[in-house]
Amino acid sequence: MLAVEEGHLDVARLLLDKGALPWCKDETGFTAKDRCDKSIQSDLTQLLLIGGHRVESPVVRV
Gene3D superfamilies attached here (predicted)? Predict the structure, then answer.
């Protein structure tokens, strides 16, 4: 999450390639995409889509 907060798209790409889960939430309920630096937000969305990752959090039914 810190990588995208600080605008490090290359680090985010590496973490995703190594299996990071982009829809995980922090203690306040935000995902990395929610906390993403505005300068890389569209690039991060493209990265998620190209990599086949979910852009939004999955819905979990209990």
Answer: Ankyrin repeat-containing domain
